[in-house]
Design brief:
The protein is built from 14 helices and 27 strands. By secondary structure, it is an alpha+beta fold. The longest helix has about 45 residues. It is globular, with a radius of gyration of 37 Å. The N and C termini lie far apart (about 130 Å).
């Protein structure tokens, strides 16, 4: 027993001879301690990495939610109109279009990043479904690609057509006649229509409240088809109007302006001229606040159909209603005008107070509505639709002018028979390649064939756009500023107690 203990002690001393002197428990204890420290370091590093990634993920989610909120919230000026572009599709999917708020103008509906949408024609004869409301889907047929022209049957109901015709009759129809010169006679340059002071005042007074406001004068300046007063005469009226403390003109005040315009050396304010050969009667119907609900519904329907921002449509010309009787016609013409450096758009010039040598119509597109079906004749003709090339010389064939609808209406490439409730939409301008309005589409030349039997009622809705993107923006911002500064003007467009019929106009 004692020998065994001595051997064990000698073995331990020999094993420890090569190691530093220490307690027999130091080595295993130190090894275990080092292992625990490495495990703690790994756990902490892993925890830090996980937490960093978790916080980054949370921050990304919050940023995404904020981005979606601010890009789809009420502050977006064009979201509602851009979203409406989904309403026109090949599959016919229907998306409801909320109508514009009835109590305010969408004059701030504009953005520098915004572009003018165009409906795709695909090919001639292509039919696509168009949703213009939660419960109505229309078929839109492509009639031409040059110009881009569509037909929408049943766009208006017969009752809506009847109401528009009655409103035009109540407002009163004006002669828009340029007598065709007989053979051997030169075309007369004499004024085709002379109006009395009261008639001119009534024509300017869109809401028929017996007072002229600046908004009515500015709205009146937008049409340049020869039935409106010249820019010089309108500026004379505005100068007198702005000098009045009330900012309005009564009939007696207007008589002074009219008398001044009648002085020698000045163009009579009541003399109206036509820009192209035609014979018909027409009227202009205000579609803004206080107008008949059918007119406002029709304007909202145009906004949905064209997919344009409501501001462009609301600040465009009033609705033109035309009556073609037996033998009435209009020669082929362009609704809009080519833009040049020396010209300016009629709808932005007066409000923008800019100067140019010539004032022209700037109509991005036209929407025409057949309010009746002529028994015979009265077709809308596009003489050069889908021609391979366009040359003005080609309009004269074998000594016959294709623009003369009285003689050559049957030779046009495309003729559309008027059918009550049907709408036509065509683009008067090409795209500039950057989403804005480009050059005039010369193929949009069109006219109205003579009515052979019956009566043809037609309405035109034009959307005015300035080819100068910045000018259009300044114009809309100017209107927005004036609208905010003079919001009290709306009370003048409330229903009148003495005449609901006048307010409907």
């Amino acid at each position: 027993m004692e020998d065994a203990q001595e051997n064990l002690m000698e073995q331990e001393e020999s094993d420890g001879s090569d190691k530093p002197s220490s307690s027999p428990y130091n080595s295993p204890f130190r090894s275990t301690r080092l292992h625990i420290q490495r495990s703690n370091v790994c756990s902490r590093a892993y925890f830090v990495v996980v937490m960093v990634f978790f916080h980054v993920y949370i921050l990304n989610v919050i940023a995404l939610l904020l981005y979606v909120h601010y890009n789809n919230g009420p502050g977006d000026l064009v979201t509602g109109d851009d979203a409406s572009s989904a309403s026109v599709s090949k599959s016919g999917s229907a998306l409801p279009h909320p109508p514009p708020a009835p109590r305010e103008l969408h004059v701030e509906d504009y953005s520098q990043s915004f572009s003018l949408p165009r409906i795709e024609g695909i090919r001639v004869g292509h039919v696509q479904q168009v949703s213009l409301g939660p419960d109505r889907t229309y078929e839109m047929k492509t009639l031409s690609l040059k110009p881009l022209l569509f037909e929408i049957p049943g766009f208006l109901s017969e009752e809506e057509c009847r109401v528009v015709v009655q409103l035009a009759q109540l407002k009163g129809l004006m002669e828009s006649q340029t007598p065709a010169p007989s053979q051997g006679q030169e075309e007369s340059n004499q004024p085709i229509l002379s109006l009395s002071t009261e008639e001119v005042f009534s024509l300017l007074d869109l809401n028929q409240d017996g007072l002229l406001q600046k908004q009515e004068i500015v709205s009146h300046s937008r049409s340049r088809d020869g039935t409106w007063l010249s820019p010089d005469n309108l500026r004379q009226i505005l100068t007198v109007l702005e000098a009045r403390p009330t900012g309005m003109l009564t009939l007696e005040d207007f008589r002074l302006v009219y008398d001044v315009s009648q002085r020698p050396g000045q163009q009579p304010i009541g003399k109206l001229r036509s820009q192209f050969k035609q014979r018909s009667k027409h009227s202009w119907l205000y579609q803004g606040l206080g107008s008949h609900h059918v007119l406002q519904t029709l304007r909202n329907r145009v906004i949905s159909l064209t997919r344009l921002p409501s501001a462009l449509v609301e600040l465009s010309e009033p609705l033109q209603v035309i009556r073609y009787e037996h033998g009435d016609f209009s020669n082929a013409h362009h609704d809009s005008s080519p833009s040049h450096s020396e010209t300016t758009c009629a709808h932005t010039r007066l409000a923008g107070n800019t100067s140019a040598l010539t004032e022209v119509s700037c109509r991005y597109l036209t929407v025409s509505f057949y309010l009746s079906s002529a028994e015979e004749g009265g077709e809308t003709t596009f003489p050069v639709a889908d021609n391979r090339t366009y040359e003005e010389q080609a309009l004269v064939q074998d000594g016959v002018d294709l623009t003369d609808t009285q003689k050559t209406c049957g030779k046009g490439n495309l003729r559309i028979k008027p059918t009550v409730g049907t709408a036509l939409l065509w683009y008067n301008h090409l795209s500039d390649g950057r989403g804005w309005m480009g050059e005039l589409d010369e193929y949009s030349l069109h006219g109205d064939c003579p009515v052979r039997r019956g009566v043809k009622w037609l309405a035109n809705s034009w959307v005015n756009v300035d080819p100068d993107h910045q000018m259009q923006g300044r114009y809309q911002r100017l209107v927005a500023q004036r609208h905010r500064a003079k919001s009290a003007m709306e009370e003048h467009y409330q229903p009148l107690s003495h005449s609901d019929l006048h307010q409907d106009l």
